[in-house]
Hints:
mainly alpha, 0% strand
Amino acid sequence: MKLTSWLEDYGTVKAALTSNGNLSAIGNRLGLYPCLNSNPRSPTPNSVIVMATTVEAILGGVYLDSGEDLNEVRSVMAHLGLTYAAGRAMLIMVKYQYVPFPKS
Length: 104
């Protein structure tokens, strides 16, 4: 695989893994919904974006609490399915419509 092809593929996988839809799905799978404390006047109190931001905040917390150890963050990301291999598999399933892919 040429470098340019790999970079394009990597960019596509990264975009899919870090999309609000995917991060929100991970948060929902983990059962984080009851942990969210949002403004009751908000038109979408627990939206996809709020859940995605929560998952991002957890990863940021792991980074800070681990003394900025990226290996710890990578470990949590792997546990959550945020790896290159998982992203490739997800894109293949979406392409062939094996599973629904949440939109962000």
